[in-house]
Amino acid sequence: MSRPLEEILFGNPRPQAQAVTRAVSGIAAAMLLLLAAGVALRFHTAGQLDARFWEFFAWPTTWAFLAKGLLGTLASAAMAAAIALTLGLVLLLGRLAPLRLVRWPSVAVIEFLRGTPTLLLIYVCFLVLPQAGIKLSTYWMLTLPVGLSTAAVVAEVYRAGVLAVPRGQTDAARSVGMTEAQVFFLIVFPQALRYIVPALVAQLVIVVKDTTFGYVVTYGELMQNAKVLIANYHALVPVYLVVAMLYCLVNYAISSASKRLGGPMH
Amino acid sequence: MGEVFKLLADYGPAFGQALLLTWKLTALSFVPGFLLGIVVTVLRLLPLPPLRFVLTVYVEIFRNIPSVALLIFIVFALPDLKVLIDYEPSVVLTLTLVCSAFTADYLRAGINTVGGGQMEAALSLGLRPMRVITAVVLPQALRAVVQPLTSLLIALMLSTSLASQVPFPGRELTALVSKIATDSAAGIAAFAVAAAMYVATGLLIAWAGATLEKKVRILR
Amino acid sequence: MSIQSALKSTVVALAIVAAGPLFAQGTPINAAAFDALVAQGPVADAATIASSTWASKIKQAGLLRLGGTQTSNLFSLLNEKDGKMRGFDAGLAQLITRYILGDGAKIQFTQVTSSTREQVLINDQADMVLATYSITPARAEKISFAGPYYTSQAGVLVKANNKAIQSYNDLGGKKVATQAGSTGPAILAQFAPKAVVQEFQTHQEALDGLRQGRVDAYVTDYTLLLNALSLGAGDAQLAGAPFGAQDPYGIGLPKGSDGVAFINGFLKKVEADGTWAKLWSISIGQRTGSTAVPTPPALP
User: Which one, of C54, C66, C267, lies nearest residue C147 by Cα?
Assistant: First the structure.
């Protein structure tokens, strides 16, 4: 499919169609502006545009405070992503192993970690493991469950990439006399990675989103600092709005970076 | 194992109700979310730049926002804008919005798999563009994205654990495990039961999705 | 528009901007007095610390891991501008830290909520919890309490124009907020069994719930309600007098810890030398308009 759908369906319009489209565009723009105005009006009548609710955003201390929270978020997310990428590879190798004794437990672990909510795993680290005597630090109570949960998904993403590598490559490598390990790590896996970079980055975004559950284990991150600001200034709407936007921006930046890394080679 | 049986004796009905609540929240969010996603996708196809821009922003926001941040905004901040939504509808609304954004994304990718030639043929037959979309493009696109939508449904089902974060009337599985773990020492058994229920539900959905996909997929 | 009116509007605008933070917080805490009070608190001698394994451990670590709250206006509020927490609970925590370590600032802080207070002690994520923590037999099974250091009865808070609720007797069938894991649910079960209870994780969220109309009333410790009134005069009012048993606030410690005796010794000291009373005045008394300093509760 060479031309995008919009071009096929709506490209080269007749002059009348062009005029109609422009008119409808104008109406749509007008209606959207009205909608935006309505929202702004609602903000105003609810008193949410008062200076006292927004002025503290002009102070650098506020942003420094939020930045500290964001650092907490990223510190946990980065480690969880590292765990997910490495453990995911281990699980993948187990999943692909020819030995049933290795394969079945790997499948079981993957299905188990994929099939349970991350929040539940976080509660387990916080409430259940201590009953069994395992007491992690606050940081790990958040990072470990998020890392484990994502590792299972990453393993499946890796697997999809590996399956997408043409069979011919594996056969050729084997015929040259490479060992299975060499075939996998030198030929198959690098090519698989190129197919799945967007999917992996999507997982990274999910990891960042999962860190917002930090308050469940009393880990200090962005949401926590937002609550302090709210307690100080009673500005629920502005603070939550700004924090939500910050999360969206961080995740959007991560996704955009992936798009720039490009797609598969062939 | 004995612990599990004791747990089921004490909390059996609670687990049953929690499971039903999880399923109910999943269904209540997926159906509107899915339909809304289709609407958003179709509207994004129209050659109306303002509309496309706004909807792209919509999709980007609800794809990237953490669900818990969205839920907290709806439950705690919206009332200050004089919009008071009860807890259960708030959870459903959060999941619906997120679901619609991801549906719109996957469906867009599905639309890209429909051959350009088909659309040109349909146009040359005299069909209007909207008709082409609804009669030719959408049906094939939907059939192409059964697998990602199945994953989305499973992810949505797991996201219902969000309900444990607001004063929800009634406990779903995660809230129930949290309560049992706080009140007693049967945390591990409770977690095992809840995990089994989640995994079983997920496998059921995955099996249903795979069966559906085999039936409707388009082999090109 | 004359220069006069332009000047007038500028002054008014500046006044609004300057008054902004004041309006939002009610009477802010006298930061200078608070900091000065904490800085002159007692410091334990080596023998006292050595007699307690709990205190010795903290002295060795050089840091006290505190579980508390940063969002409670009277008891512990974090000023994000200077990074300091101030309030009655915060003051006691800093005084205890100074007592053991010589410096009230050596605190590693963890934000806890009603549902995480016991768990952080069980998980060894914190050495002590100071967070308007009511002593109850159920909690005493999982953790140990030092103190009590404060008592308060329960009160009912309603919106200013609510004539339907005059006291806790009128709560039947109404939506009532309370803090999860606090004594609120038990008090409501005893005094207003027909109320529809909604449990919130923090005091702030419950207050917002009342303000936003999610609930008709909020039942919690009377002192917290006084604080709420000091913030938004005219928005809310107390319904009836304080009721129920005197709710003792304690300091949470790991189960069986000898820190209990240690902290009780500290509390006796600060109650005797007037520090407790001064702290109460600065954090609570001056900000809620109460002049009568209560007597600290008897220690076991």
Answer: C267
